[in-house]
Specification:
The structure is a single chain. The protein is α/β, with parallel strands linked by helices. It folds into 2 domains: about 230 residues, Alpha-Beta Barrel (TIM Barrel), CATH 3.20.20.60; about 30 residues, no CATH class. The protein is about 40% helix and about 10% strand. The protein is built from 11 helices and 8 strands. The chain has an 8-stranded parallel beta barrel with strand order 1-2-3-4-5-6-7-8, surrounded by 7 helices. It is elongated. The chain binds 3-methyl-2-oxobutanoic acid.
Length: about 290
């Protein structure tokens, strides 16, 4: 069996993520959907890269995550796999891939591991998914749970609305988290719930909680990469902190290119290749500086 090379940073594994809660060492998680961004996120030192079904909204232009299919997800998971060396790679199970039957759900989860190179899957839902989590554990597929504002429940929720704001609704989300915890998930995403409820759940479950719009008391935090980088237009939810404004930077770089081409400022002579001189220039490689 090959040993880890000394130059490579130690890989993040499912047991290491689970252990973090006991060490009170916060977990960082970001989404990624393609090779180049995955490499940047991985090299920056993130713990978990989630190929979220949010890809449907931020990369594919759908209005919700509901249209995203298995083949689309697999393509993105494979691309991200090629860019990730250290982080734990989690594939999000899209709407329709785990609701029809447990057999089909296990088959689809195994595809993410075997064909996509994922090291775990994430699925939305609590009490009603506990038995499926058991089946996936039997199939040796680690599972990340997801409760609260689960975007695949959009039709039942009637929109992207904060969940668990009444006592009864909060109790139901706590029960969901407890059921997943008992079934053996290695972490639970808490999305769009009040801070005090997230704190209660975090204290009640063994698995680390990873919050998004759930306040600072979770065991870790996750954001959609495009939100963090300011890549998409439109309203930014209250819980997002934009660490960059790449949409503006990209737009101004592209405008500059357009202006330079129109005014014959690009390409310059230095950015052009030249014919061989009588003294015999060497053949230039296409990437020659
Ligand atoms: O699809 C996604 O990106 C997610 C995260 C927001 C947790 O589910």
């Amino acid at each position: 069996m090959s040993q880890q090379s000394t130059s490579q940073p130690a890989q993040i594994t499912v047991p290491k993520i689970f252990q973090r809660k006991f060490n009170r060492d916060k977990i960082t998680c970001l989404t990624a959907y393609d090779f180049s961004m995955a490499r940047i996120v991985d090299e920056a030192g993130i713990d978990i890269i989630l190929v979220g079904d949010s890809v449907g909204m931020v990369q594919l232009g759908y209005d919700s995550t509901l249209p995203v299919g298995m083949e689309e997800m697999l393509m993105h998971v494979r691309a991200v796999r090629r860019g990730v060396g250290r982080a734990l790679l989690v594939a999000d199970m899209p709407y329709g891939s785990f609701q029809v039957s447990e057999e089909e759900a296990v088959r689809n989860a195994l595809r993410f591991v075997k064909e996509g190179g994922a090291e775990a899957v994430k699925l939305e839902g609590g009490v009603k998914r506990a038995s499926l989590v058991n089946r996936l554990m039997d199939a040796e597929v680690p599972v990340m749970g997801h409760v609260g504002l689960t975007p695949q429940s959009l039709l039942n929720f009637g929109g992207f609305k904060v969940q668990g704001q009444t006592e009864a609704a909060g109790e139901r989300i706590l029960e969901d988290a407890l059921a997943l915890d008992a079934a053996g998930v290695f972490s639970i995403v808490l999305e769009g719930i009040p801070r005090d409820l997230a704190q209660r759940i975090t204290a009640a479950v063994k698995a680390p909680t990873i919050g998004i719009g759930a306040g600072p008391d979770c065991d870790g935090q996750v954001l959609v990469l495009n939100d963090l980088l300011g890549l998409n237009s439109g309203r930014v939810p209250k819980f997002v902190r934009q660490y960059a404004h790449l949409r503006e930077s990209a737009a101004s770089a592209i405008s500059e290119f357009i202006e330079d081409v129109k005014n014959s400022r690009f390409p310059s002579d230095q950015e052009s290749y030249h014919s061989e001189t009588p003294h015999g220039n060497r053949i230039q490689s296409i990437s020659n500086a």
